[in-house]
Design a protein that fits this description.
- By secondary structure, the protein is an alpha/beta fold.
- Helix content is 35%, strand content 12%.
- It is built from 13 helices and eleven strands.
- Strand 7, helix 8 and strand 8 (239-242) form a beta-alpha-beta unit.
Amino acid sequence: MPRTVRLLANGDDIKFLQQRLNERPPSALPALPINGIFDAATDARVREYQTDNALFTDGIVGPITWSSLLGHSVVETPGFFTLDRQIHDRLGEKVLLRGINKMSVFDNVDPDGILNFAEIKKTGANTVRIVWAITSNLAPGGPATDPARLDTLISNAKANHLIPMIELHDATGDLARLGELVDYWTRADIVAIVRKHEQYLLLNIGNEVGDDTVTAAEYQDEYQAAISRLRTANIHVPLVLDAPTFGQNLQILNDTAIGLRDGDPQGNLIFSVHLYWSISHVGGADVIKTRLEVAAAINYPLIVGEFSQFGGEAGKASMCSAAGEIDYKAILEVCHSLQLGWYAWEWGPGNDFFDPLCDVMDMTPDRWFAHIKAGWAVEVATSSPFGIKSTSITPASI
């Protein structure tokens, strides 16, 4: 939930507070300037709100007052938090995620991210989504990954001023395996790592958990149970939930996000859609714009966890052929307009593992920023007015 704030505090969350107070029924006091400063006028309006709502009148906006203002129960957390659609850091600064995915768990050349994260940072990115797994081959009972390496990856991301988002890849497309992911996250050694980094960590429970047979009711029930277990294990960081249908079902997020958020004891969830909507099967710019605008209007924290120029539904053709092409330029522009965070897929190399054509999804052939590929990769990173270089801001807390 939001941090506790009082007189003399400042930040983007104070702007939100001022806006929310101004939206209340007419007050005997003047409207507040949206200046992000908890000044005497803001203090007076807070006290008025507390009195009118039978709250303890002390001018301090803590869990009880925030819960009343937001309309759902929340508790204070040590790191990132959400307010309506926006993500804020522990200092109250609004953060628009602009990042890149990195398949760290499969990278035996740079297993600790020492090279990759430094090179990704050269794009101006403020975050990296770290692909991790319970087992190195993603199979139940397979070779276990080393928790110490996960700890090192998180530390190295932070050392490069990148907000680390960690995720598990084992249950891709399989909702039945969600419990296995939660078993991993709630292990004592993994909880210790999460708690160690909780001031700046985002936890993506699982990559694309669930195929196209998952219903909204199943999704909500399974994730509500997962959230409950994670919070009971004293994990306080924002939890990121991928859409089902291999990350692409935005409608199910629209249908369940508010209920899941309200059921989270911390009220601190982020929802992630993977925009592999091919032009040939789903449509281009108009579909992207319409669907994301509908989601934004529902007013829940939404990000695009993955997108690329290719990787969409392509029938019998390769998803990395022209049939699987995605209107990535529309994604960049619409996300900028709606202030939605995003992560490009993927820094590379390695996307050609199953399909040689998919090396087109590698942003670099060898991890080096100096060798970033022409075309979509350069546009996403540096040349587009809606790309990383032009829109990314790294918060002071990172």
